[in-house]
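In this supplementary section we document a worked example of the pipeline. Step one takes a protein sequence of length 103 as its only input; no multiple sequence alignment statistics are reported here. Step two produces a three-dimensional model, which step three serialises into structure tokens for compact storage. The input and output of this example are shown verbatim.
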Amino acid sequence: MAYWVPRPSVTDKMIELTASGALERGEVVLLCLISDTQWKDDYNSPGWAKPEHWVRVRAVEATGDELHVSVFSFGGVQDRTLSKEDWGRIYFEALFGKLNEPS
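The serialised model returned by step three reads:
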């Protein structure tokens, strides 16, 4: 879990997997977002939210203090550009894994 204890290494790992092409080759990162509404609308929305929306990471690329994040959600790819600080507020938990090779 990354939300209560901020872990920049989780985001760094996603950036590394994107840069190396591992996500394209079958590595998988699933994220539980704090809220689909925060992901779509306002990263700094007031009030509270509970973790409730799982997505698959397609790419996380760093440009200065901003991140370009691409996820698969609700049947399609969604892209956002946001600060590293805002990104850290939106996701609750990350699971890393690999798809099985076809036999």
